[in-house]
Specification:
alpha+beta, Arc Repressor Mutant, subunit A, SH3 type barrels, four-stranded antiparallel sheet, 11 helices, about 40% helix, globular
Length: about 325
């Protein structure tokens, strides 16, 4: 790659992919000498990108946080994914993200080429998001970003945590993955004090503090992080395992509520929906927005709740307004 401009863009993309690059590794990926790499880094600095350098035999480079956000280098797929993610964030369980997500979405779409803008608009036109009410327990955006960076960088993290019974504690963990399930965010991590894997609700987590210590890879005792969280929730007292048959194709059910539940195709035009929840009002709401016939397999308490809601709605429709 001999063109300096193209090489600078490639260098910027690599710096955005990883927190820290050894100088030799970075030069090797670009196919240039270490001396040429230093010139390219200086070119990025002149353009306003805050690239930090660590000197010495094991020296390297990292893209530091700047006073203002420089232009991001995104390919087509990443740009579309960013726009779709911002649409979703407008309905997320993170405090204060709705308005800021809408503003960011407007900015991103405005600078997109027409071909990408058409793809984003097409996705929005054929997707029917469920109109969820505001979640009860919101996550601080600063907590979310700090924990996400620790997961990305495999860096040990300390934080204050409040258990379900209200008891406080301070934890130090090796973060693994973030999981969204139902209305909540969870951190899957190896708890160094307990010597075992745990999942932590982010709305109960405060003051996360990166320790600067890198975490060694560990094997998660589950198929993936989502399965680990679901298994833990299923063991909690007061958690309901919901299973429902829906007279609608699986693709349609996934498009409406697939973010929050597991959907399987039972038969052509018929789906099986499963979820774990601590409040039956939420699955009742989810089933209501589907606009399809449903058969409750379990638990019977959900069927009782649906019957109660049905009787209440019938009475509401029969009231004659006063003159």
């Amino acid at each position: 790659m001999t063109d300096p401009a193209a090489r600078a863009l490639r260098l910027l993309a690599l710096l955005q992919q990883r927190r820290y690059w050894a100088g030799g590794d970075l030069a090797g990926r670009l196919g240039v000498s270490v001396r040429t790499l230093r010139r390219d880094v200086e070119r990025l600095r002149e353009l306003g990108y805050p690239v930090r350098a660590q000197r010495g035999v094991d020296g390297g480079y990292q893209l530091a946080a700047g006073a203002s956000l420089p232009p991001l280098l995104l390919d087509d797929e990443a740009a579309v994914a960013l726009a779709v993610g911002l649409r979703t964030a407008a309905q997320s369980a993170v405090a204060g993200t709705a308005e800021s997500s809408v503003r960011a979405l407007a900015t991103v779409v405005q600078v997109m080429p027409a071909r990408l803008r058409r793809r984003v608009e097409a996705l929005g036109a054929v997707t029917e998001p469920a109109p969820w009410t505001a979640p009860r327990d919101l996550v601080d955006p600063a907590v979310l970003t700090t924990v996400a960076q620790a997961c990305r960088d495999t860096e040990r993290l300390a934080f204050d945590y409040t258990a379900a019974d209200g008891s406080p504690s301070t934890r130090e963990v090796e973060p693994h993955r973030l999981v969204t399930l139902g209305r909540r965010w969870y951190l899957v991590a190896y708890d160094l004090d307990r010597g075992d894997w745990r999942s932590f609700r982010l709305d109960r987590l405060t003051a996360p503090r990166p320790t600067g210590v890198r975490a060694a890879p560990r094997r998660l005792p589950a198929e993936d992080a989502v399965s680990f969280v679901q298994a833990g929730i299923g063991e909690m007292a007061g958690t309901h395992r919901v299973e429902v048959l829906v007279d609608a194709p699986a693709d349609r059910v996934r498009a409406v509520i697939g973010r929050w539940v597991r959907v399987e195709e039972e038969a052509p035009g018929r789906s099986r929906v499963r979820m774990e929840t601590d409040a039956l009002e939420w699955p009742a709401h989810a089933l209501g927005v589907l606009g399809a016939e449903v058969t409750v397999v379990s638990p019977p308490e959900l069927l009782d709740l649906l019957h109660e809601w049905g009787r209440r709605f019938v009475r509401a429709g029969s009231v004659v307004p006063p003159p």
